[in-house]
Design goal:
74% of the residues lie in helices and 0% in strands. The protein is mainly α and 184 residues long. It has one domain. Pfam families: DUF308.
Amino acid sequence: MPVPMRGGSGGAGGAQRAFPKGTVIAIGAIVGVIGVGLVVWPFFSASWILVVLFASALIANGAVLLARGRSIGGILLVVAGVIALAFTGATARALVSFVGFGLIAFGALWLAVGLRFARHRPSIGIVPGAVLLAGGILALLWPGVALSIAAVVAGLVLIAVGAAIIWGATRPRRVDPGATTIII
């Protein structure tokens, strides 16, 4: 998300206020620290983040159902979210297994379709499907390792994003904001 510059023309014809430089630097630092946490403690932090996001989604959807008067479905989702939070290890393994089965199914589908085109471009027809299949099988055999690898990769990406946010907030700006186009 771009940080609007002071004095630049904002969206719908009005001037937008910029985020204070310190706030943007703090956000970049927080993103970077989360990335470091994922790299240093990959399984613990990734499983915790994964479970909290999953449980939060269950609880939020349950609350929406309750607000709409669908009490049984809402109560079931809220209870499922609380149970997911109570059993973080089992929930993380179940989610990784679910993703593993999905990768296997998608890899098999890719191979089934890709084999028809393998004569023309074998790398496009076979390699992605084989990689998806292998990733799914590895995720099912070693869910902790699969989650740790995903966490380290995500952590490295978050460190780079945090550094980019900080760099973008601290570098001098010499661009005319009225002459730029930002695509989100």
